[in-house]
Amino acid sequence: IIAVLDFGSQYTQVIARRIRECNVYSKIYPFGVSTAELKKDGVQGIILSGGPSSVLLPKSPRPDPKIFELGVPVLGICYGLQLIGHLLGGKVEKSRQREFGKGTLKIRKKGKLLAGLPASLQVWNSHGDRVIELPKGFEAIASTENSDVAVVQDAKRQIYGMQFHPEVVHSERGIEIIRNFLTRICGCKGDWQMSDYVETAVQAIREQVGDKRVILGLSGGVDSSVAAALIHKAIGKQLTCVFVDNGLLRKGEREKVERIFREHFKINLKVAKSGSRFLKKLKGVTDPERKRKIIGREFVKVFDEEVTKIGQVDFLAQGTLYPDVIESVAIGGNPAALIKSHHNVGGLPKRMKLKLLEPLRELFKDEVRALGEELGLSKEMVWRHPFPGPGLGVRVIGEIKSSYLKILREADAILLEEMKRTGYYEKVWQAFCVFLPVQTVGVMGDERTYDYVIAVRVVESQDAMTADWAHIPHDILQTISSRIINEVKGVNRVVLDISSKPPSTIEWE
Ligand code: XMP
Which of 239, 246, 357, 416 is the most exposed place for a label (fewest CB within 10 A)? Predict the structure, then answer.
């Protein structure tokens, strides 16, 4: 196990993730963790993260000074390096300004840390303070344009430090430096796997929850599904999942969730069939943001009622991922301080005094998918496209009517079926239909029709911030179009959305 001491860097979790990528188990500790605890956990190496503070400030975060005498290797990154310089008798100087950006690392001496790397590398720098005088026993083994002490080592005591961030993707071959530290210096074997993570997470959940009861809002999306499967593995019947059918779901969605979670996993699952309630509240409403607000508010009410019915509950579980956490952290803030609560259950935990259980908080999306598969969720489930909380409510343009929803559901099911059949589902970010409340003239058989329009939206994206329309082959589009028009009553026209984001958005509302 490798200990990552968190000095408040935005990248602490990224360091932990890189360590997992090297098949080594890591645990993040608060910076002030005692050497006794580290010893008890059997750590093989310690990484000191970066951080927004300056070691020159008297109140800046410091580790237990005894960590340098534990006899396990230490690697300081950025602020971590400055700590090493400052605490072990070197000299750190304040730079006039903080500078971020790419730099070229020139390696003078490789040692174990830089073994196997070329003499020159692009690295991502963050130079705030600088070490200008090395502590006794240390030598600088690489430099950048701005600093002679970009990488330092005391090979005898196995203490290492670097000014740049090897964990970020902009640092070329940074992961090899981390791997060198783990395997060549700390002697880690590199045989840790996601299945080992399941065990650790299960233990941690059991410890946190004890004999208390946990509630989880299951949406059927990847994150809440993986969280449900994991928590259920840990505490079984102490977990109750609540699935709110708001009447705005895709075709067969509720049945699918019931099949997987109730029948297959044998999870306590409460299903609140409340479609008519939502529709009533949405009657006559056309403004997209008002629709969202109404759907969100009604969700909280329904969820709240279900929780009340269950009785005593102590924890609210959420499938919050690391990217959700980082999104809500002010730059330079403490990552632990702020939690982005799932927009759908905002306001709930406070009043009910529920404690939060967020077992996926340290993981990235791809890791959550791997974890899901490890837990026995199908590939189909863990590779699902994102689906917005307000669901089809923002895909029926303007006022929502149940007759429109019915048409949209059928058309959407055909689109998804064809995307999956042709292998395009996995290649694109999202694929869905939009119902346009516009009637146009058509001819079917010998008869004139006056029916609605379905728009097909298929986009490619990395993170939903920008997106481009996917170039689906014409023959596939042809099948989709003719199937929708032939099979869905009420539709006589299908159009393709060929707008990118920006300036459009992915959803139409
Ligand atoms: P836009 O339409 O803004 O969508 O380009 C970006 C991503 O966010 C999803 N989306 C939502 N998700 N509640 C959600 O949970 C919403 O109200 C919402 N609106 C958009 C959208 O599907 C896409 O993945």
Answer: 416
